[in-house]
Write a structure and sequence with these properties.
This protein is an all-beta fold and 160 residues long. Helices cover 0% and strands 55% of the residues. A hairpin with a 2-residue loop joins strand 1 and strand 2.
């Protein structure tokens, strides 16, 4: 079998994409999903258990993150859920809080979905996850993935 060469280099010596390669193309897609019920009664960030990891092919790539938490609820008091998107251990995006207005005997449900375009400047594995907190601290409780509903995160590497 003949040895295939690119720009007069063996394939093992190629460390970057060829010059002139179009940017903006989707290079890979990764999905994470969870149905694990998570509850919080505090103002401290709690891991939702929703995460996915991607290893960019190039440090100039961007990662388009799409998150969907379709069924969250708040019980016992007025308040809001603050969701955060985290890259490895750093909060990189905080969408507008999800507000819940209720009284002590009513549970209100709502979903939260958002997209974010990140530039991790890395070709090493990167993990994205969501975390949330109860914005009113101990006033009631907030849950995500209640009733067995799935939350999803989709990561798309876009050529830079």
């Amino acid at each position: 079998m003949a040895l295939i060469k690119l720009n007069n280099q063996s394939l093992t010596a190629v460390s970057a994409l060829p010059a002139g390669l179009d940017t903006g193309k989707v290079l890979q897609v990764v999905q994470g999903i969870t149905t694990t019920l998570v509850e919080s009664t505090s103002n401290t960030l709690v891991d939702t258990t929703l995460s996915a990891s991607i290893t960019p092919l190039s440090s100039s790539s961007k990662i388009l993150i799409q998150v969907s938490h379709p069924n969250s609820d708040k019980r016992n008091g007025n308040g809001y859920m603050q969701m955060n998107l985290v890259r490895d251990s750093t909060v990189i995006y905080t969408p507008t809080p999800q507000h819940f207005f209720t009284n002590s005997s009513v549970t209100l449900s709502a979903g939260i979905a958002f997209s974010y375009l990140d530039s991790p400047s890395s070709s090493s594995s990167v993990t994205y996850k969501t975390m949330f907190r109860n914005g009113n601290g101990s006033d009631g409780r907030i849950r995500v993935q209640n009733n067995g509903n799935a939350s999803t995160i989709i990561l798309m590497e876009i050529a830079g």
